[in-house]
# Entry
Amino acid sequence: MATWLFYILGAVAVVATAMAVTRRNPVHAVIYLVNSFFALALIFYLLGAPLVAAWEVIIYAGAIMVLFLFIIMMLKLSPGEEADRQGPGPLQWLPVMLLGGAILTCTLLLLQFDPVGGQGLPHWYASPRDFGYALFHKYALAVEIVSFQLLFAAVGAFYVGRAGGRKIAPGGEQ
Amino acid sequence: MDSRLLFLLILLPLAGGVINACVGCRMPRRLVALLATTSILGSFIATLSCWSLAAGSGTQVKLFTWLASAGLQADIGLLFDPLAASMCLMVTGVASLIHIYAAGYMEHDENQARFFALLNLFVFAMLCIILADNLLLLFLGWEGVGFCSYGLIGFWYEKKENALAGRKAFIVTRVGDLFFTIALLWLFSLLGTVEIAEINLRAAELDPALITPLVLLLLGGACGKSAQLPLMTWLPDAMAGPTPVSALIHAATMVTAGVYLLCRMFPLVSLSPVGMAVIACVGAFTALYAASCALAQREIKRVLAYSTMSQIGYMFLAVGMGSVAAAVNHLLVHAFFKALLFMGAGTLIHLAGEENDIYQMGGLRKKNPLLFGLFLIGILCLAGAPFTGGFFSKDAILLAAFSRGDGLSACLWGIGVFTAGLTSFYSFRLLYLVFFGEYRGQETSPHLSPLLIWTLPPLALLGLFGGLLNLPYFYGGHEILSRFLGTPPSAEAPLATELGLLVLMSLVFAVGWLPAHLLYRNFQPEPETPWRRFLLQGWRFDLLYEQIILRPYRFVARFCWLAGDRALIDGVVEGIGRTMLHWGGYFRLLATGQISFYLQGFAWGLLLMLGWLLLKTAV
Amino acid sequence: MTFAAPTEFPILSLVLWLPFVGTLLCLLMRHSPQACRWLALLATLSVLLLTVGLFVGLPAEPGWLLKENYAWIPSFGIRYSLALDGISLLLISLTALLQVAAVLISWKQQEHPPLFYALVLVLETGILGVFLATDLILFYLFWELMLIPMLFLIGIWGHENRVYAALKFFFFTLTGSLCLLLAIISLYLIHGEQTGVYSFAFETLKQTQLTGGMEMLLYLGFLLAFVVKVPLFPFHTWLPDAHTEAPAAGSVDLAGLLLKTGIYGLIRFAFPLFPHAAEQSLPYLAVLALIGIFYAAWIAYAQTDIKRVVAYSSVAHMGFVILGLSAWNQLAWEGALLLMINHGVTTGGLFILIAMLQERTGSRDLRGLGGVWKTLPFFSAFFLLFCLASLGLPGLANFAGEILVLLGAFARWPLLAALAAAGVVFSAAYMLRVVQGVLWGPLGQSCKIDVKDSLPTDLDRREWILLIPLALLVVWLGLYPAPVLEPLRGPIGLLLQAGVLP
Amino acid sequence: MIVPFQHLLILASILFLLGLMAVLVRRNLIMLLIGVEIMLNAAGLVLVGASALWQQLDGQVMVIFLMAMTSAEVSISLAMVVYLNRRKKTIDVRAFDELRG
Amino acid sequence: MSGLELQSLLPQILLALGATAVLMLGAWYPSRNWILAGAAIALLAALSAGLIAPAIPEVAQLYSTGSYARFFVALWSILGALTLLLSLRYTEIHDLPGSEYAALVLFASCGMGLLSAATSLIGLFLGLEAFTLVFYVLIAFKREDSRGAEAGLKYLVLGAVATGFLAFGIALIYAASGSFHLPEAFAGLQQDGGMRALGLVGWALMLVAIGFKVSLAPFHLWTPDVYQGAPAPVTGLLATGSKGAVIAALVPLFVALGPLKADLEQILWVLAALSLLAGTFAALPQRNLKRMLAYSSVVHMGYLMIGLLVGGPAAYRALLFYLIAYTVATLGAFGVLSSFSQRDDEPQEYADFRGLGYLHPRRSSVLAACLLSLAGIPPLVGFFAKFGIIAAALKGGYPGLAVIAILAALASLYYYLTPIIVLFMQQRDARQLRRGGRYEYFVLTLCFAVLLLLGIYPAPLFQFLASLLP
# Structure
């Protein structure tokens, strides 16, 4: 049953991502992406990572995507925003798809040669307790570093995003 | 006596030259002239006092080693043997007289120091040639005289032509020197020595096949210095120099160096019949060529120059005929009377107000009878008037040629005789045009320094009685010179031959004189015929060389520069640079500034890597 | 190591680094040009005294006369090792002499004198180092060290087209020297793999066993570097530009010294390290040398810029040197090295004189000059003397070398030597053309007034002091070269044994 | 077993490539960033799968770090977007090619 | 995490906490002196790295505290300090906030220190991201400068994508080996002598990311743009630190990879050769100093790649020596640039430098020295750097690369000499610039001294580096 679920979710994720990538309107793209993230979250759960699944929903779908939406709204990139009015047409897509397809085939063919092909994913469940233990014992230092990263990222974001740098006319410059 | 006294011979002139060169310009002119003259006189006296050393095979002295390296040993060393001694005596003697003459001739020139310095250095170099005991030192003198003549021909350098004439002389002679150098290299590589005596000694060891080319190379060198065919074009132009210079360098001494070289190396030279024949031919033809040119010249000094050339031709002929004594004898006598003629010419030119053109002279006999007398003696010697020095010496040469008996010598003898006729003709042409008839130049009354006259008589006497030096037994002489030189006495020709030649030569002299007398006794300008112009321009050899040598040379020079260096080599090098910069431009274009293009770079890179890895794992 | 223990007092290092100290002081005192001038003169003079002292003091015998050898970069087996034999002794003496001349001739240097003298002094250190180093990397370092100062000397103080000339000089020589580096490293590695001893010491690397192909390859690497510097025929085009555009001191150093480093490299390193390859290469060298002699002489005849004529004459003379080396016998080699020294003195002198001429008339163009003898008799006398020496008049410097070369070369390449003798005629042709154009004839328009709107004045005291010794040297080397030949004899003998004789 | 691990890899690769293509083809800065998010998610998927495969937690932990890092990055990026939009009044990356050559 | 671990990781912790402290205090007491304070902190960290011996060899299976790691921590700390000293006057004339700047630079050097010390792929990832994030901000730090913004954007987008590649690569390698920790992580890739396909794909992805960070062709295209747009001191840090740290981290990585490297050999070969060629050619026609240096840095990365490719102690020693030589010279060059920069603009075009050599002899000669050292002209340190690399290439059996390297060195002289010629050999029409700050002169003098001293007597450094190698 889990197997079927995996394939279904995988299909959903791929389709949703594909839609997201091709949408002309950023808002739609974000919504599709949220879908694919939900699917991925479920796959994570299937693979026995409940906590990661939860965070996938909370951080990615919840926080990051919402942030995206917020920015899009703020910049009024409503449908018909000139940046992407007519998004990339087939002419742009074709070469890129060929390139991507080539890379994908190479990857997949290479993977054929790997013994991992035979191995299957077992049913396995990592309890949040163990997870937390691992996170805050073995990887405590890493957590600290990440926290510092977040701090300085915040500082940077604040510095960059802060309104009204000195020489900027309200109309911007063109 | 101490044989090292010999070095006084060369050191005195050297000292005089160096002193004059360094501080001459700070000394009073008279002192300069005095110093120069005394230094030469000194070496003249030294020669006389060292005379005894020359006896037999002479003496050899060494001052210090100049160049010594593996196998090579070239000393500053002298070989004072009879040949050298007699040459020395002549050179120093004539040189002293000419120095004295020059003191008068140049007294108003502000560059006396330079003049006398060069003149002394010249004598030094000339003596080096004469006395050198090895070919390298001889070569040093050889080039030295070349340089001095260069400097003296171009002495009045403000006139471009003079300087150019000097350069021409230097380079043309240097072409000859090239052959001499090669001969030197070759001899060294064959015999492992540059000692003249030793080379002559061991010449017989050499492979006969090699001797002829060697001799020809030496001949080439000699031709250059002695202005023989085909390297003779420089001598007439060399007359641009001051007259004493012409007298000393281009009449008496330097130009005869070639003859001297051949005599010096005679033991080697004589080993190659072919070589001898070639030498004789060169001599004979030059004699003829020069005499013919002399017929048409208008500048007094050029006439004399061509006559010099032709007389030297005789000497070559003599060497070719194997009679060194005759050659040397003629060399000496010729030196005397030719110096006399040149100095006389110099005086005449003064007299005629610095006028060179004999058409502008005439009637000078009345102006200065003494000078006329002296000049006449010179002319007679040159023309080979019976019983003058010139007569005997020339006679000896022709006799040698005649008595050889083979066909070639016979022809050459014929040429010689014919040339003798021409000689007496142009000599008297000169004499008549200058001294007889009415004076045609503008009136001038220059003050003649007595030195310009009183240095001539000794030379006149020497020229007149120079014949006695080597008077054949036939005339009751004892061939002093040839015995002194230790050369075999001239062929004992039967009485009839001797007499016949005597008569013949006298006739030839007369035959030359008569037309000149008729034509030029009273002056009328000669018609401008193409022939005359042809002769006047020395058979147009200059134009020929200009066309076949100089012009191609200039072209090659420019070609190598523009096509070779500029276009080809630099072109290639700079081309590489430019190409790289060009490609650099393309690589710059990659940085389009478009983020998505840069990302494509990522993707392509990844694709290539994966593709390669796939290939590797799959295969 | 095959080295003896270092000499107790490092006299060589003293000689080597004295100029460098001068450089540093110059840079420190860059606010008082006058001081720098005297400093530079002092430094060069003291080096000259030291070298003369060595020249007089040391015996003329084969083999190393002095050695120094200290560890430097052990991890690569690079050592700071200097050594001196008769050849290097002569060359450093020449260097010291010409550097004094270079300083004196640029006495009136107006723009940035401190930098100028500093560079001249560094250059001296570089050149001395090249002549003294026996560790290949050390040698290479000094070899490169010569480039930069010369680049700046040409590029900053040069004439019209200086930057082009500087870059051309730099890239030609650098291309060569990078090949040299590659070859050196390869040799080092090969030797290391053979013996396990990783060292750049010349005497160690000489033992390396090489296969024919590899030997030839490495030899070509060395050869290219040195031959470009010499320069041999096809690689010479940097030289005329560099010589012409360089300031007086630069030209003197280039012609007098830098060219010699090429020859020195050949005989000291390229030939002994790869004797068989060298042996094979001799005919080609000889032919190229001959071509160079003719080609350069011809081109020189077509020039109107005096400096260019002299530059091309250098190419011709170097052709003689290479011809001598290619003959591979005592006579020719002694001649070649003698010619090297003589050429250094004569050409150096010529460039000095040309600089003086340009100071006075502001022109180097034959078409504009003429009749100088009238206004500057003493200058002209010196000019004539050096020109005659350069065209190989017997009794003056160059002849001694040339004739020895020819005599030696004739033994091995009779035809080539005979042809090369013709080069002497050509040299007369172009040199006399210069003399003609400068000294004789009516006064040229450039000579009527000098830069200071007055008739040019003849030599001043500084210039006398500068020229007299050189002139004496020209005559001395021409008439009595023995003192120079003796120190050469032994080392040359050794070098010739090192190579396989034909 | 649930599925062969390979299938998960395939899925991840497809997602990754989709993200990459988005990055390559889209001109809208926001969409570029979204593409990056997709790529990172693909990485996360592989990590989770791998940690299941090896039955150890390091992979999952790494995913957490990945998420944190992503959020940090996104915050800066979006700040940048705001900033650039304020300057140039556009978030079309084609507009930013002042520096080139 | 225990006290031991904290103590062993002291330098990095000092940097991070110092950065935070500067940040916080700066919020209350805004002042540019915080930059000096930051420099002091960085030096302190360097000291601690040098003096205080680590208690344990490895912290949390993430970061090594071995002498190798410590050396680079110290190096990057000093680099951070020097960058800050260079930035003082710069931030003043461009009116940039001191404390933020100082904090970011400090944290950047902390990240570099972590990266160079990483013994686990996680550690690698975190360290890398740490300073990458900071650079996103620093590059765009001059907010009134539109070119800065563009440069920031380019670095941001490409960096983000590269992060994606890196993450995916690491994930694949983890999937293959089941461990992030070196060398187990690579040991797992082993399969009958060769590398597993999964590992190959993972490495390919990682190489893309690395290639971006150290700008190897064909991932180098961003370099000139970002160099040109970023503030000069930041460019200096970016050119030296961020690249150096990655290279420094790669050495242990390759050591851990062991024989498996053979499978990547050709790829590395091509990357090296491509970087040498592309960088050289593109640098030749440049007329902008920053862009030229950017392309030339591509070339230098090519040289370093040769070192990595050859492998073995000798090659790594040469590589590290080269890295240091490159770092010092590049820092000096950008230092001169930043001290040349004026309130209104910073001169980068050659046209701005014409004849400047005589107006500002000291700074110009330092610039010249740095360029010549980069070109590898003795007696500057660059020569022995190149010498070592080429020797290594020949010894390792890569004559082709050696020849390419030599040719690149030859061509490089053209683009390194051009600015020197412009500085010294052209008529001076450059305008007088303001004289540099005291600290700038200090840093430049330091760089110059190091270039010269190491050039004349490199032996000790060579031995020291040899002793460092893991």
Q: What stands out?
A: The two ends of chain C are 31 Å apart (CA to CA). DSSP finds 21 helices and two strands in chain C.
